[in-house]
Amino acid sequence: MWQGRRVLLTGHTGFKGGWLALWLSRLGAKVRGYSLDPSTEPNMFTLAAVRKVVEDTRGDVRDSANLENSMRDFAPEVVFHLAAQPIVRRSYADPVGTYTTNVLGTVHVLEAVRRTPSVRAVVCITTDKVYQNQEWVWPYRETDVLGGYDPYASSKACAEIITAAYRSSFFSYGRFHEQPVALATARAGNVIGGGDWTDRQLIPDTILALSHGRPVVLRHPEATRPWQHVLDCLSGYLALGEALHDDASRFANEWNFGPPDDHMQPVSRVAEMLAKHWGLAHTWERDPGQHPHEESDLSLNSQKANRELGWACRLSLDQALAWTASWYRSHADGARAQTLCEEQITRYMELS
Predict the structure, then answer these.
(1) What are phi and psi of 255, to 5 degrees?
(2) Which of 222, 220, 223, 225 is nearest to 287 (CA)?
(3) What secondary structure, in 3-state letters, does the chain show?
(4) What are the backbone dihedrals phi and psi of residue 292, each rounded to the nearest 5 degrees, phi first?
(5) How many CB atoms lie within 10 A of CB 185?
(6) 6-349 belongs to which homologous superfamily?
(7) Are 240 and 255 in contact (CB under 8 A)?
(8) How far is CA 321 from CA 21, 68, 98, 329, in A?
(9) Cβ pair 218, 271 in contact under 8 A
(10) Distance linking the first and last C-alpha atoms of the chain
(11) Residue 37: how many other CB atoms lie within 10 Å
(12) Which residues make beta-bridge pairs with 329?
């Protein structure tokens, strides 16, 4: 599927975007990235030499003219839209920037697609937080009501609504006088893995604390999330992209990519498991300060992807944390980040 395929990837300088760029390159795709500069220092894009495997274009999805010019010039067949303001806490500090990036940015991507005749499939990445969280015990299905307590979650719910509107208004495969583009959204759980240095996030904060032999400070230690390795998440995106190419009318809709129930663990437990793989009897401390609201419980029902796409997480939570700890430990010991990523991608592809 991907050998020689032209793929435009927005957000390639981010954590997930960098991993996806490396994997698509490994599969033989010709990839152009469109993104702002990396937002952290250090960052995976630089350390893993992602620039060497993509056509690296810098730009903001809020700049519609530049985005359209880049897309039309490259003439991709497939678009993965990952560029976003992805942090809940940052959305409280900059709601306007969050909405313009996540909402208008999505509009600009889809408008650029409308003006690029080569595009045949688009996967828009949103989040597990697009649902109106009722704090109930069962996982959310794709048909459940959208919502969002905070600016980040609600901006991603808006992106879902926009994508559905464009699909029915402009890209419907039931109307061949319109542009035949297969358009889908992907909602994934909390992604972990090597190469993430995002500020005030669980895995980077825990790795930093472990590296200095001190407890990690947790804002919401009791909060439970659907944890999954970045390669499990990205395998879902790739499976969806392939399915859209093969049968657009069947797969052009919304998809959850979440882990099984036993991956649902509180933040404190995940920190303890990661410490075990680091080789320390690590402890954590609760941050006594006041913090913005974050959902306490959230899980996804991925039966649709399991059944229709044949997708499921290949790594247990313990394995995902072991791979994550190994990545950071090996990198700290001098291993090249790109080599570590390539080795884990190859190892993942060999799993049954």
Answers:
(1) -140, 130
(2) 220
(3) CCCCCEEEEECCCCHHHHHHHHHHHHCCCEEEEEECCCCCCCCHHHHCCHHHHCEEEECCCCCHHHHHHHHHHHCCCEEEECCCCCCHHHHHHCHHHHHHHHHHHHHHHHHHHHCCCCCCEEEEECCHHHECCCCCCCCECCCCCECCCCHHHHHHHHHHHHHHHHHHHCCCCCCCCCCCCEEEEEEECEEECCCCCCCCCHHHHHHHHHHCCCCEEECCCCCEEEEEEHHHHHHHHHHHHHHHHHCHHHHCCEEEECCCHHHEEEHHHHHHHHHHHHCCCCCEEECCCCCCCCCCECCECCHHHHHHCCCCCCCCHHHHHHHHHHHHHHHHCCCCHHHHHHHHHHHHHCCC
(4) -60, 155
(5) 27
(6) NAD(P)-binding Rossmann-like Domain (3.40.50.720)
(7) yes
(8) 22, 39, 30, 12
(9) yes
(10) 19
(11) 9
(12) none
Angle between helices 337-349 and 15-26 (to 10 degrees): 60
Rounded to an integer, what distance in angstroms lies between the CA atom of residue 326 and that of residue 232? 17
Dist. CA 78–CA 87, nearest whole Å:
26
Contact 73, 55 (CB under 8 A): no
Distance of CA 34 to the CA centre of its chain: 15
Other CB atoms within 10 Å distance of the CB of residue 306? 15
Q: What's the pTM?
A: 0.96
Residue 177's pLDDT band (cuts 50, 70, 90)? very low
CB burial class (10 A; 0-12, 13-18, 19+) of residue 59? middle
pLDDT digits (tens, 9 = 90+) for 15-61: 999 999 999 999 999 999 999 999 999 999 999 999 999 999 999 99
Distance, in Å, from the CA atom of 314 to the CA atom of 135, rounded to the nearest integer, reads 27
Measured distance CA(327)–CA(122) in Å, rounded? 31
Spatial neighbors of 27 by CB under 8 A, at least 6 apart, are: 1, 2, 3, 238
Q: Are the beta carbons of 122 and 81 closer than 8 angstroms?
A: yes
Task: Say how far apart CA 274 and CA 122 lie, in whole Å.
Answer: 35
* Beta-carbon-side half-sphere exposure of residue 46 (alpha carbons within 13 Å): 8
Contact 128, 298 (CB under 8 A): yes
For position 280, what pLDDT does the model report? 87
